[in-house]
Design a protein that fits this description.
disordered N terminus, 3 domains, LysR_HTH_N, 12 strands, transcription, alpha/beta, DNA-binding transcription factor activity, D-Maltodextrin-Binding Protein, domain 2, Arc Repressor Mutant, subunit A, WH_DNA-bd_sf, 8-stranded mixed sheet, two-stranded antiparallel sheet, DNA-binding
């Protein structure tokens, strides 16, 4: 089998179009070439690799396991090509290099703004772009060369192409309305769950942490008085006088300082989640702008 560097990149582009659209017909329309020409390129690519990459399914196609792997890697290859072209064009025009970051919700809202404000005061001409999303989206942006670094709150990692650096932990606290009977007290989890809880939506990592705690401590889950799809909405409900919730300390510290809410400690429970700095393992060169920013982050988190 030939190495990837010997592959016909034209055929690989056509393959990516077919794979993304799950259809030879639709790919041919998008590429403005004939269906037989598309089919021939796919067959040549399969002959070149010695693998079956896709099989017919209904009126479209389905990727094999090898085909799915090639599709994902080829997408990254072409994203890297686009990134190289963009950066070379920036050098050609004498433009400042960008600082491109992706992040999950907590770092994007409670860590990056302060870090970036300090960075921009030192390097005012650098263009900064921050993309916020869930962990999968933040990592996907990084792997597809749309960002140069990602800040992700996540416990379990299976991505082999990501280099991880643990930068800090975020503590989670149980909060209650100001003046609640458990405000400022330490209680058993079995007592706290007698109160109505405000829960995040199904699939939320905070919700999963809570239900894990209930299971580990043999406690029946509480009555869910409200289910909301965001930290801000949930915290506002507690400020308004309703419910118990588990929230990141970064999101509630200011509210506690202003005495808008109360905090309850639970015996034997200390919840914290790790924040990781993520980079691509394949990257051997670090742009000077990124190096300056990461040095600032290191200073801020030491």
């Amino acid at each position: 089998m030939k190495g990837l560097y010997q592959m016909n990149l034209h055929a690989l582009r056509i393959y990516c179009s077919v794979a993304s659209k799950k259809s030879v017909t639709e790919a041919a329309k998008a590429l403005l070439i004939s269906q037989p020409a598309v089919t021939m390129q796919i067959r040549n690519l399969e002959k070149e690799t010695g693998l079956t990459l896709m099989v017919p399914k209904g009126r479209g196609i389905e990727l094999t396991e090898a085909g799915e792997f090639l599709f994902k890697q080829a997408e990254r290859l072409f994203d890297m090509e686009a990134d190289i072209e963009k950066k070379l064009e920036q050098y050609k025009k004498g433009e400042q290099e960008e600082l491109r970051l992706s992040s999950t919700y907590l770092p994007a809202n409670f860590l990056l703004p302060a870090w970036l404000a300090k960075f921009k005061n030192q390097f005012p001409l650098v263009h900064v772009n921050v993309y916020s999303g869930n962990s999968e989206q933040a990592i996907d942006k990084l792997l597809h060369y749309q960002t140069d670094v990602a800040f992700v709150v996540k416990e379990k990692w299976t991505e082999p192409d990501i280099a991880l650096s643990h930068i800090m932990d975020i503590h989670y606290w149980f909060i209650v309305p100001k003046g609640h009977k458990y405000d400022g007290k330490e209680v058993m989890l079995s007592d706290l769950v007698q109160e109505p809880f405000i829960m995040r939506e199904t699939g939320s990592s905070t919700r999963e942490i809570l239900f894990s705690l209930f299971k580990i401590h043999g406690v029946k889950p509480p009555y869910i008085g409200l289910q909301l799809h965001g930290f801000n909405e949930s915290i506002r409900a507690v400020i308004a006088g309703y419910g118990v919730m588990l929230a990141p300390s970064l999101a509630v510290q200011d509210h506690l300082d202003r005495k808008e809410i109360g905090r309850t400690k639970v015996q034997g429970i200390d919840v914290k989640r790790p924040v990781y700095l993520c980079r691509r393992k394949a990257d051997k060169h670090m742009p000077l702008t990124l190096k300056h920013f990461l040095e600032l982050v290191k200073d801020e988190t030491m």
